[in-house]
Amino acid sequence: MRTSFRFLTSCCLVLASTSLCFAEGRTVARVFWQDDTDATVRYGDLKRSAEGWSIQPTPITDFPKLDIDAQSLVQMRSDDGLLLIGVRDDANGELGSGWVAVESGAEEEPHGDHSHWRLNNSPSVLHVNIGVDQGNPAHVYQYGKSFVLANDAKNGFTITSASALRSSESAPDAAKFYDGGNGHITLAVIEDQVAYSTWIARDGDDSGRVDVVGLGDNEGKKYSIQCPSGGLHGATANSGKVFLAPSDGVCWVDADLECDDAPETVDVHYLSLGKDDDDAPLRTGAFENLDQRVVFTAGKGENAKLCWIDASSDSPSIESLPIELSGDESLTTPLAIKSRGGKSLILLFRENRNAPETDELLVIDVDANRDGNWEDAALTHTVDIGRNQIQGHGGHHQALQLPSRRHLLVSNPADGTLSLISLSDWTVQETFSVEGQPARMAAFGE
After folding, report:
1. Judging by DSSP bridges, how do beta strands 335-338 and 329-331 pair with one another?
2. Between residues 388 and 7, the one the model is more confident about
3. Which terminus of the chain is more solvent-facing, meaning fewer CB atoms within 10 Å of its CB: N or C?
């Protein structure tokens, strides 16, 4: 009789524990997002329970207070449970710019061929490096384990990493500055051995200039190459090549990992993107990578298209898929992802600053038959989303594939919401009110 009572008691405790677990929800990911209304970062644990999805917006209590009339957050990158967030001002860096490093509170627990993330701690600021000598970064990149900040006002760039940030007692000790590039700088870094840093000049001797800067064992080496047109904005690396975005088309070079080529021997290859209705050359402004392909957009209105280059080819060429746009619509930089089922997908936002209620998420399946050839690329889904709030360079929708690769989060800046979208059927599972103006996002989890 006593044994039966103990058994029943144990069963009740298990059921109670299970019910409590379902009520509280299982944490799927810890999500971070920038709020452009007050230039801060918030987070929330995305949970799923029997009642549905939930997320509770929470401030990072020790995040530095910025002057929202003159300072803003720029790009945000993550690695090994750590976030690096760029800070820019409206005074060419003279008011205060730099970066903030944030511990996510997420810890990776390896299990042989996979790992789990434990979310036992609250996020906290690890380092703050904001001052008048930080060069006003506009772009923050991640190449391998390296974070790279473009210090526009200092005509150079800074490199750090999660391990360097954690092992350094002070922010200045955690990062190293390199001269290279000028004005509004974009960067490609290859194997921590060499960086390609662009000059924004449209005219003159420095139009089209790219500084090739040695890193690591190559530190101290430096030379410059020239693209046939200026206004460079966009750089990336893929398959041993560097791709650059001048005002006309795309240029590429073989990556010089020893940083010892004679500049006059470097072949700068040019690929045309065509011309618009006014006979002006088409250009792009940012690249994404998906496996061995470089992905980007070009053109407006009837000339708008999604483009890609097979970087592994000995003779790279541009392929494209037309994207229909009205005169008031524009495309965002692509997000390239692999679904949990292995699909290669390119996601774009079709935005209208004059009628933001018509904004859509476009889904392009670039390899439907999975033969590795993107000739069957096609627009397969359009998803209605919330509204943009485009002002200057900000206010665009942002998308984030969650770590499980089953869902996508979309920020709707004008609505103060985040939308959770299924990657299996492209339905909106839930839209969360987070207030403010949510922008760039990052996530950690299973």
Report:
1. unpaired
2. 388
3. N
